[in-house]
Amino acid sequence: MPSDAKAAAAIRDEYLHGWYGYTAKAWGYDELRPLSGGHNDFFAGGHSFGLSIVEALDTLYLMGCDDELAQARSWVENNLDPTQDVDIHVFEAIIRLVGGLIAGHLTTGSAALLSLAQEFADRLLPAFTSSPTGVPYTHVNLRTGQVQGSQVALAEAGTNVMEFGALSQLVGDSRYYDAAMRAYRAVLSRGSSLDLLGTTIDAETGRWADHTSTAPNPPVDSFYEYLWGGGRLLGDSQLTSWYQQFTRPILSRQAEVRGGRLWFRGADTSTGRRTGPTHQSELAAFYAGLLAKGGDLDHGAAYFRSWSAVMDRYPILPETVDYTDFRIVDQGSQLRPEYANSAFDLWRITGGASYKQAAWRWFDNVRTHLRVSGGYTVADHVSSSSVRHGDLTPGYWFAENFKYVWLIFSNTPRFDYRGGILSTEGKVLAGAR
Ligand code: DMJ
């Protein structure tokens, strides 16, 4: 382990390596393709929102990259267009664009960024207000307000109260928070007698499309994260009490210990019987930190150890593994942040050196295997001994991955380590100094 100062400097250097890769080849586009030097439209072909720039705003601030931040802020204030005639994914737009703009506002004080956040939220709101149940449609046209997509995964229904609640407070307009709470009530009032929730719900009828709780895997994951995070950020005890109520059956019905390690299996929402494959998505690794934040440090720490054991086998975590034997189910790796996110949460709660070491190992592995001359990239194929590169730097890389490890090692005065609160996309929604 290097000293904290050396580790922090290395992390910042690597973040800037990715940033300059993006600015050199994909400036103004959503995402960089670092091998080919091309770019990717994240939301819809032919439409760009400069996504990586919006994602980066508060990370650049926390890392003290003030010149880069000024350039990023100026691009967003002068070029980002929320009026494009395009059907946009509501969940992704809220966590990435609205959240990114709010965090950008909170870290720079820019009124223009806040007003852009509000304009996006206004244009996304029809997805909530035109729904008969309150569960948001998956897509809305930013210009016309036309909605579509009534089959809604749980994460898409309930990952909005942090951004919308913060926005309501900042602009003094409760419509955003009210829409988020109506969506939560629509889902939670349809929980089974065991307080288990299905995975996909129909926004128009309120009927479940399935009867399996697949938490904490996607596409459910952040639904629970926002019950806790919303409760904390907004001081809303109703959200916190829902978090406790709906987490209890996940632990009692879905937790499964294999080879001495904690995992989560699907469960039938009516009978509670375990069901489905013994697969775990890497995205579920965030749940270790959430459990600990929610007050269950034992289960949080145990689940983190499970993922550390997978990393003992694969330096880059595969997208999906079978937890009974660690066989790879999905061979790719999308340059994900979830393991680092949990290391950060657990380190913040316990101060434990083991989480710092885990975070450094994760960073070092990513630097060794996923760094290319043009930045950082996803992998098409990972194994215990090799990694085959893909060609994309996902937008969230600028918001999440190295931000978590930077916060662990830098002890930056720009972040309130006690009270700071981050969204599912790693946006600092409270505690920027
Ligand atoms: C991020 O966009 C968010 O963390 C989301 O909640 C799910 N995971 C991706 C990155 O893997």
What is the topology?
Elements: H1 4-25, E1 31-33, E2 38-40, H2 51-62, H3 66-79, E3 87-89, H4 90-108, H5 111-124, H6 126-129, E4 139-141, E5 147-148, E6 151-153, H7 154-157, H8 161-171, H9 175-188, E7 200-202, E8 212-213, H10 222-234, H11 237-254, E9 255-258, E10 261-264, E11 266-268, E12 274-275, E13 279-281, H12 287-293, H13 297-313, E14 320-322, E15 327-330, H14 338-350, H15 353-370, E16 371-372, E17 375-376, E18 379-382, E19 387-389, H16 396-410, E20 421-422, E21 428-430
Antiparallel strand pairs: 1-2, 3-4, 4-5, 6-7, 8-11, 9-10, 11-12, 13-14, 14-15, 16-17, 18-19, 20-21
Helix pairs in contact: 1-16, 2-3, 2-4, 2-16, 4-5, 4-8, 5-8, 8-9, 8-10, 10-11, 12-13, 12-14, 13-14, 14-15, 14-16, 15-16
The site of 1-deoxymannojirimycin has 7 residues, from loops.
Descriptive account of the structure:
This protein is an alpha+beta fold. The protein is built from 16 helices and 21 strands. 50% of the residues lie in helices and 14% in strands. The strands form nine sheets. The chain has a three-stranded antiparallel β-sheet with strand order 3-4-5. Strands 8-11-12 form a three-stranded antiparallel β-sheet, with helices on one face. The radius of gyration is 20 Å and the shape is globular. The structure holds 1-deoxymannojirimycin. 1-deoxymannojirimycin binds next to loops.
